[in-house]
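Fold sample X.
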Amino acid sequence: MPYICPMRFDIISVLPDLLTSPFAHSILQRAQTKGIAEIVVHNLRDYATNKQKSVDDYPYGGGSGMVMSIPPFAACIEKLKCERSYDEVIFMSPDGETLNQTIANGLSIKKNIIILCGHYKGIDQRIRDIYVTREISIGDYVLSGGELPAAVLVDAVTRLIPGVLNDETSALSDSFQGELLDAPIYTRPADWQGHRVPDVLLSGHEAKINEWRHEEALKRTQQRRPDLLK
């Protein structure tokens, strides 16, 4: 059996325990068990040099909140870069480019990615200037930290890696893959309290089913996300 070089995610966080559960179940767990993906979470405090293991400080110029400082991030990133080369160093930030399926598709063909999770008021701009190659947001809102966005990104990317999903065509038919939302889906029973599955789906006529699905996907996209059709 040929050796599979796993896609590797190195996530740097001040709250590594927050990421234990998302990567220990379902598809992400299977991807790691199969050796297709490797997800390693690094505790930023392990790279702090002060006695208190603090990783933040007051902002220059005054203002509210604390800022994550340079040395711990730099030490962790430099250590990782000595071990392997990385395709991307991604900072999860509300002012980054908004994550979409196209971005996930592009990242799924990379081999090694570092993800930085911010906290407090943010991270020192120099880390972003020197090390970060890409900044990604999961939406126009602010969370307490970058751990949940990092988990979202890893999930969206990992499920696209060949061999992760049992049905490889499943990811290709998801919403947004063809710039359309997905069509409605049904399962048994065919009739539930008078609510019936569309007859075409019970017909066994593949061409008609595909045509129906495309029409329904187009209709749903026009109703809910007309911006995608532009």
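Fold sample Y, listed below.
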Amino acid sequence: MYNTAGIGLRVRIEKLVYGGAGLARTDGGVVFVGRVLPGELVDVEVVDRKKDYARARLEAVVEPCEDRREPLCPNFATAGCCGWSHIAYARQIALKESIVREALRRHGKVEWDAAIDTVTGPEREYRIRARFHVVDGDPGPRLGFLEEGTRHVVPVTGCAALAPELNRFIAEANASLSERPLRGADEVRAVASPDTGQVGASFHRGRERVSWNRRDPRTRVRGIEYRLRADGFFQPNRFLLEPMMAAVADAVADAKTVLDLFCGGAFFSLPVARAGANVTGVDRRSVANASWNARHNEIRGVEFVKAPAWAYLRKTRAAPDAVILDPPRPGAGKNVVRRVAALSPARVVYVSCNPTTFAPEARILIDSGYRLASLRFVDQFPGTPHIETIAVFER
């Protein structure tokens, strides 16, 4: 392996790996580099060396791939928001499906040769949630994103992924960051309603929090109105809200009792309960918004428990017909998945945003007597390497 950073290399990219980087093999070891495509010959500079690999910065593309295009996002070269926007969209989909299959095989010893159903939408202006950082600048503080792989904040004026309302919000927020009570904020979280365009935001200064609007935005999905909280979780792609909801709700349509772990604001709990199932939603964060959404829509047959999933599962005597898992990127956790399997539901629907943590947990379900019945890829984040899947396991 290379002794120091700063070494210039010419390498051939073998493939893209989860996280978006290209992998090249050299006499000195494996090198990872961003903003590339498989098959490309590129000049790179090593910037970081680890024990068994190195990371490099792209300097020049010597032989470009035919699927390389002009990046859609103005921040492509500076911030880490749209690191795949230089790749033709059809190739993005093919690459992500390949990464899903490899992750299952490598991390879960699961061979999935069947089709992967794919759900896609527009490439631009899809994202209704964003998290910004604040950087001092001229003439004053500005919203920005973290430069990929660093803690350096890059000021932005817009992003190809953000809904128009959030792009307009950037300029509005910048104009107010120097004024009280927003002065000194170091992080800003924002959410926009795809129905009304209203933006809700929270400005954070250490533990202090200031709201942008007094009334939270709302949006309606399949007849259910949800309150959107800047500090809460909600599915981010405005074009795929209905397909996401339908895929999960339809998968448990025949269940009479459903356990929804990591339920957030009850995005999946409410349509399932409205269809007639008795639903218990569990989340370690506040479930006040989930409860509000249920009351506001007059949906009964659903209750919410504030608790970590593992703590709830350790004590519950429930015997649900189906379990929905929608954990954050680190995954549900092996203990949680084992406890879910021990409940013996007929069906487990696992919504994952990280195939490398999903794969070993899929292996646990399979070893517990479940079979992977279907696998769907939902491209929630076009122009980025992020991958969302919906897997249905059955006994």
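Sample Y note: The longest helix spans residues 89-108.
Also: The longest strand covers residues 53-63.
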